[in-house]
Design a protein that fits this description.
Layout lengths: L2 H4 L7 H8 L22 E3 L19 E3 L3 E5 L5 H12 L7 H6 L6 E5 L9 E5 L8 E8 L10 H10 L3 H4 L1 E10 L4 E5 L1 H5 L3 H12 L8 H18 L5 E3 L3 E7 L9 H6 L23 H4 L5 E6 L4 E3 L5 H18 L2
Antiparallel strand pairs: 1-2, 2-3, 3-5, 4-5, 6-7, 6-10, 7-8, 9-12, 10-11
Enzyme class: transferase
Organism: Lingula anatina
Protein name: Kinase
């Protein structure tokens, strides 16, 4: 049975059903200290290019992100209340009858929500189904940033607050923290991958040098085109947050993606290494008669680099009055850091 045939449409009873099926013990699973890794649902595999978040077979529940052959991503819904909160948030934002203009506008900054799914192999597990953000990119370079100078939500206990603050001592000054990133090195023809532990080791200065400067370096230099395109996308999100939405996003992340196969000049890596000074016809913005010119075409240089910037992780979204100053603090700090990357 394929995902296409078993995709569960949202219903009024879906949230209630979740309480009885989400992340309950698997059949014949006695919940040992180290639960066995569950089988992969048919037609799925572990999510490629994942840099943070729960991983199949490695998280406490052994459940994690998966990808399906149809190009969608499956996220195992967490136990209540977090899982239900995230599910209901996605359902609310993407409700076809939604009339709230702020939520309708928010859709463009989120992975598209496609419903829920449970498989015959894991009938007690329900997954969120969403678009795969990295799908359009040949060599996706991915960065996961947890946003905000505060990552604990209003329901956090004093112990939880203390644990969150201890995770990253520079958080209040930086306003966000690296959860992990991967960058494609065109010289070495391989990915360099950095995890959450690395991200939490970065000082305020190293966030710039070992963080963003490294993330945007393809082996030949910093991808200025990708940085500029990211800033533009982030400023659009900032504009959304400047209008009251009635929501606050705690421990929510931003996923940054650009294509490591493309260079900032429009040349391939072979053309760069050979010293050939021309722009490929497919990258040139001139008319067909001029395309293939040997000189740098300024119009081609100005072509916007394809990037993706998506808000993810909504298990800690709460109602609020006024602006989400916590998220805005992190967002503005992030934009400022990227401007500093352009000055390097």
């Amino acid at each position: 049975m394929t995902l296409e045939n078993t995709l569960v449409k949202e219903s009024k009873n879906e949230a209630e059903e979740l309480e009885s099926v989400s992340e309950k013990p698997l059949e014949n699973d006695v919940r040992e200290k180290r639960p066995k890794t569950p089988p992969l649902p048919k037609g799925t595999q572990t999510l490629e290019h994942q840099v943070a978040g729960h991983r199949h077979g490695k998280s406490k529940t052994k459940l994690g992100f998966l990808q399906n052959t149809d190009g969608t991503v499956l996220k195992a819904i967490q136990s209540p209340p977090r899982g239900m909160r995230e599910l209901q948030f996605y359902q609310n934002v993407f409700d076809e009858n939604q009339t709230n203009s702020a939520l309708i506008s928010l859709r463009q900054f989120m992975p598209k929500y496609l419903g829920t799914y449970s498989s015959p192999e894991l009938p007690n597990v329900m997954y969120l189904v969403m678009e795969k953000v990295t799908q359009p990119f040949a060599e996706p370079c991915v960065c996961d940033l947890k946003m905000g100078a505060r990552t604990h939500d209003p329901e956090a206990t004093p112990a939880k607050i203390a644990r969150e603050k201890a995770k990253y001592p520079f958080l209040e000054n930086v306003g966000f923290q690296f959860q992990g990133y991967s960058v494609y090195d065109q010289v070495k023809k391989k990915y360099d991958i950095y995890d959450k532990k690395f991200g939490r080791s970065l000082t305020e200065v190293e966030v710039l040098t070992k963080g963003f400067a490294a993330f945007f370096d393809n082996g030949y230099g910093i991808r200025v085109d990708a940085v500029k395109a990211m800033i533009k996308k982030l400023e659009e999100i900032e504009k959304w947050f400047m209008s009251p939405s009635g929501l606050c996003f705690y421990a929510s992340s931003l996923l940054l993606v650009y294509d490591g196969e493309r260079t900032s000049t429009g040349k391939t890596d072979e053309e760069v290494s050979d010293g050939i000074d021309y722009i490929k016809e497919t990258d040139c913005a001139c008319t067909p008669e001029v395309a293939g010119c040997v000189n740098h075409c300024q119009l081609a240089m100005d072509l916007e680099c394809p990037v993706a910037v998506k808000m993810i992780d909504f298990a800690h979204v709460f109602p609020a009055s006024g602006l989400d100053e916590n998220y805005l603090t992190g967002l503005r700090s992030l934009i400022a850091y990227l401007h500093r990357v352009l000055e390097l």
